[in-house]
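PROTEIN DESIGN WORKSHEET
SECTION A - STRUCTURE
LENGTH: 953
TOKENS:
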């Protein structure tokens, strides 16, 4: 048996493989090159098919579960996807979205060739062009921007991310400041709350070993990290763990919880602070952990000057400071029963060091000040000492590896004000929601804008303003949509370039699914199958459907064409290490990465007679380490200590200059901490390398009143909603487990499971408005309104209505689109800036090479609610505050399901109003932004300086 011609020495123990009474749940790995199954459709005849089982990774959410593609030996077609038992995160299991990859691959509506706009931008008319034509045009424009030092005019805007660090390396090689993410509509609020504690921006709960699991909504557990998290939560539950869920809805996870609390939106922080207060006054805390790892001395210095630097004095002060957060206070703010909060506090205290908590979007993404909700949640972990412990909550960075290519370009010196405007110095990642407004204000322009597996006008709030800007060629010179499938935004592109799905591209992926550091390998499976059979190919365009290209090869080729003679210093990062002057292949790239930057992989591969790349092609994953606990106490290595000197706070630093480049997270030069007892450990990535109960960053950058975990009244707090005037809070940011933004649109299995889009409406509220299930209601926001059908249910708290965020897909008549999910719309804009969208046709059966397209029985395209939301950026985290104050009434005469009407002048007013509550930089030392905060492409330190003056540390 061979893999790419090399011998294999199976078997190995695969984490997801099980045997029971002679049965096994997966074919043994030694059969993966020659697995025989009988054709189910031929039953009762026995018709064998022989398959290669080739690992890859799901592309439908971030958790990157392993998939095994079944590639038929007869015609090299992919017959199905199942789980990969070798993957430590998913252990052979998937949610419904994983196997539905097969629909995406075989979708008759997918884009198969490069397309170029014909006529006006947004006319929806395209012609087929060659890859060469597209590349030449794009490369010429980018080269021009680089040569003319317009280094903020090239922007790559990512929706579903691929390999960590890959495009970042490309952009760094180009010397542009152009990485844009979707984080501000996703997770800035969650990230910000964690960042100001520990530098790391997200949690990694050790669910399987937890005694108490506290989830702030069930978002990741039922939708995003659905499979890897859910299976470990169930394991814990079987072992006796108790689960508490705070969620406005009775979600799948809440229905499995021991305690479900549905608080008023935005009040969650008050609840957590009441629990913190309980822990403090009952002594249910881990004193030694807090004493060693919390910056309590700074807390005293800043908030209680004159108090002796004494730990007991600190605890007394802290207990006193949080005493006002009583259960009664929190219950009043949250509109819940005191008894529920008492029960929650007991559960948290009982969890002790085995308290696993989690939040990602939900309340942190819904509310003004949502980042403080996250900060208050993690406060409970800090108090109970359940940070980095077995069954506790870890920082993501411990359970994740980014495998860089060793040949990294030098850091650039550019700073894009379109990405990092000075008004939001503490934003967690780029201010992407504001891009159209910043362009309209003339703060810059874009020569080339890549939307990459991203649908900005659909996903972001204020989509009509996006359309206005996307159509404006003076603001965006060229819009290149890199996408596997049609989206609303792609219809407003100049080039639509077909990119590969999960089984058609390379990426390394690593995410914090549990206490394990694994690196998985997404790969183009047909290409691997061809290689094994010695079938020649040029690149992935020869192995994918049509001319679909994998992105990595596209970026390499584009970089080459930007700098064809190497004079810009770009080409060398894309040259073959062994064939000077020739292009680097993907095999060469990954062989180098896997041989140099994945600890243990070369040895494991060698033990099986494989190269590191052959190992990854065969298993699709490698586990670098597991059971990673208390890495804050990791002793520093000799190399880390060499040249490091403690500063006045004990932070060990190596010399840096303004030419130095900060890491992805953390400060340049900082390596660890000297403790009072003289021990030197790695600590955290915060400025103090401790857990920052008192954030000097928040204090020194204009937010001293929020430097400690606290409660910020949300923009949709109960005090701001007039229930007597039919005002409600709209929760538009929950997801159904089987759908994912616009990427599930071309997966017929998923559309078959979920194909209605009701407005969740508490039965009492519905009755009060005389609205029944199925009735049309008009939902009015600050900038317009939309029309939707109500669903009266007990599964949402009174005063709140909810509409999931995956439906409402549309295309204009005559435009390309995905007919599995899109309804046809008429789109009108008045000269005064009032937009109207109205469906003129529902989803309908259509004829294609897939006979199932004629069997479509659903017709509801849903309602594109985001169009009616203004931008609402939190002034600290930059998070778009998704919750909306709305007024609900019965539909007006003439209203039709799906109608959306918006005045973009009102959008602009709302933008200005939220901008006015920001507290602009620069901060201390004339910095644009604190260096330790995450930035995907970090420039040299001097680029952080807003003013020219400034000294090195
Ligand atoms: S949880 Fe589901 S969608 Fe996410 S990676 Fe796993 S299988 Fe794919």
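SECTION B - SEQUENCE
RESIDUE ASSIGNMENT:
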């Amino acid at each position: 048996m061979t893999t790419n011609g090399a011998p294999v020495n199976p078997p190995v123990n695969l984490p997801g493989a099980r045997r029971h009474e002679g049965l096994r749940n997966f074919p043994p790995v030694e059969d993966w090159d020659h697995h025989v199954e009988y054709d189910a459709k031929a039953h009762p005849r026995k018709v064998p098919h022989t398959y290669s089982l080739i690992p890859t990774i799901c592309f439908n959410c971030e958790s990157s579960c392993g998939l095994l593609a079944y590639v038929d030996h007869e015609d090299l077609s992919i017959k199905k996807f199942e789980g990969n038992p070798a993957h430590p995160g998913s252990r052979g299991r998937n949610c419904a979205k994983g196997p539905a990859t097969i629909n995406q691959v075989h979708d008759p509506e997918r884009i198969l060739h490069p397309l170029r706009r014909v006529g006006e931008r947004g006319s929806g008319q395209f012609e087929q062009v060659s890859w060469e034509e597209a590349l030449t045009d794009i490369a010429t424009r980018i080269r021009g921007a680089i040569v003319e030092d317009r280094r903020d005019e090239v922007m790559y805007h990512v929706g579903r991310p691929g390999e960590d660090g890959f495009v970042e390396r490309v952009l760094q090689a180009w010397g542009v400041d152009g990485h844009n993410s979707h984080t501000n509509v996703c997770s800035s609020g969650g990230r910000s709350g964690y960042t100001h504690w520990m530098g790391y921006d997200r949690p990694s709960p050790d669910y399987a070993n937890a005694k108490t699991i506290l989830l702030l909504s069930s978002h990741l557990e039922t939708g995003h990290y659905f499979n890897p998290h859910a299976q470990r939560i169930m394991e814990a539950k079987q072992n006796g763990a108790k689960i508490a869920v705070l969620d406005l809805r009775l979600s799948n996870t809440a229905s499995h919880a021991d305690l479900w609390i549905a608080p008023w939106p935005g009040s969650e922080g008050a609840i957590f602070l009441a629990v913190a207060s309980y822990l403090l006054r009952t002594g249910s805390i881990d004193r030694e952990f807090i004493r060693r790892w919390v910056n309590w001395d700074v807390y005293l210095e800043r908030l209680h000057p004159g108090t002796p630097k004494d730990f007991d004095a600190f605890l007394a002060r802290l207990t006193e400071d949080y005493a006002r957060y009583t259960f009664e206070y929190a219950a009043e703010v949250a509109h819940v029963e005191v008894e529920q909060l008492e029960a929650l506090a007991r559960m948290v205290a009982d969890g002790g060091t085995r308290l696993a908590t989690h939040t990602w979007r939900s309340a942190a993404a819904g509310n003004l000040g949502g980042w403080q909700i996250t900060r208050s949640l993690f406060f409970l972990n800090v108090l109970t000492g359940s940070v980095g412990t077995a069954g506790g909550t870890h920082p993501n960075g411990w359970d994740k590896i980014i495998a860089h290519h060793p040949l990294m370009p030098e850091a650039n010196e550019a700073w894009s004000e379109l990405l990092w405007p000075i008004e939001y110095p503490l934003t967690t990642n780029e201010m992407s929601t504001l891009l159209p407004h910043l362009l309209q204000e003339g703060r810059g322009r874009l020569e080339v804008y890549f939307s990459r597996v991203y649908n900005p006008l659909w996903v972001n709030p204020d989509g009509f303003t996006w359309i206005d800007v996307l159509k404006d060629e003076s603001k965006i010179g060229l819009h290149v949509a890199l996408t596997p499938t049609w989206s609303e935004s792609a219809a407003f592109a100049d080039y639509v370039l077909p990119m590969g799905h999960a089984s058609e591209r390379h990426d390394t992926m690593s995410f914090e699914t549990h206490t394990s550091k694994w690196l998985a390998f997404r790969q183009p499976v047909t290409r691997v199958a061809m290689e094994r059979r010695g079938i020649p190919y040029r690149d992935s365009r020869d192995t994918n459907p049509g001319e679909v290209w994998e992105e990595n090869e596209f970026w390499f080729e584009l970089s080459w064409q930007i700098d064809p003679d190497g004079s810009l210093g770009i080409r060398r990062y894309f040259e073959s290490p062994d064939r000077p002057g020739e292009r680097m292949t993907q095999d060469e790239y990954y062989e180098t990465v896997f041989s140099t930057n994945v600890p243990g992989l070369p040895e494991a591969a060698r033990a099986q007679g494989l190269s590191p790349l052959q190992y990854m092609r065969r298993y699709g994953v490698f586990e670098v380490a597991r059971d990673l606990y208390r890495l804050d106490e990791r002793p520093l290595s000799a190399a880390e200590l060499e040249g490091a000197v403690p500063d006045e706070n004990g932070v060990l630093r190596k010399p840096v200059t303004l030419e130095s480049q900060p890491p992805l997270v953390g400060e340049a030069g900082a390596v660890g901490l000297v403790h009072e007892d003289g021990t030197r450990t790695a600590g955290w990535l915060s400025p103090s390398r401790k857990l920052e109960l008192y954030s000097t960053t928040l204090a020194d950058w204009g937010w001293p009143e929020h430097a400690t975990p606290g409660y910020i009244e949300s923009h949709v707090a109960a005090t701001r909603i007039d229930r007597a005037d039919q005002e409600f809070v709209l929760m538009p940011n929950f997801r159904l487990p089987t759908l994912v933004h616009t990427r599930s649109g071309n997966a017929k299995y998923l559309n078959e499971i979920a194909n209605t889009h009701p407005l969740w409406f508490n039965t009492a509220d519905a009755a009060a408005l005389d609205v029944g299930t199925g009735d049309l209601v008009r939902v009015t926001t600050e900038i317009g309104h939309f029309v939707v059908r109500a669903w009266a249910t007990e599964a949402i708290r009174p005063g709140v209505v909810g509409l999931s965020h995956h439906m409402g897909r549309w295309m204009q008549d005559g435009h390309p689109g995905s007919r599995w999910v899109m309804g046809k719309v008429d789109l009108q804009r008045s000269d005064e800036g009032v937009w109207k969208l109205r469906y003129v046709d529902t989803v309908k059966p259509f004829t294609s090479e897939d006979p199932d397209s004629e069997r479509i029985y659903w017709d509801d395209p849903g309602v594109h609610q985001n169009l009616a939301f203004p931008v609402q950026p939190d002034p600290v985290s930059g998070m778009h505050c998704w919750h909306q104050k709305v007024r609900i009434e019965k539909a007006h005469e003439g209203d039709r399901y799906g109608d959306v009407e918006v005045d973009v002048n009102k959008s602009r007013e709302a933008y200005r109003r939220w901008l006015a509550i920001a507290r602009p930089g620069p901060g201390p030392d004339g910095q644009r932004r604190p260096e330790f905060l995450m930035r995907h492409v970090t420039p040299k330190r001097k680029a952080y300086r807003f003013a020219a003056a400034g000294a090195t540390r």
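SECTION C - NOTES
The CA atoms of residues 103 and 747 lie 5 Å apart.
The pocket of iron/sulfur cluster is lined by residues 58, 60-61, 63-65, 90, 94-95, 97-98, 226-227 (CB under 6 Å).
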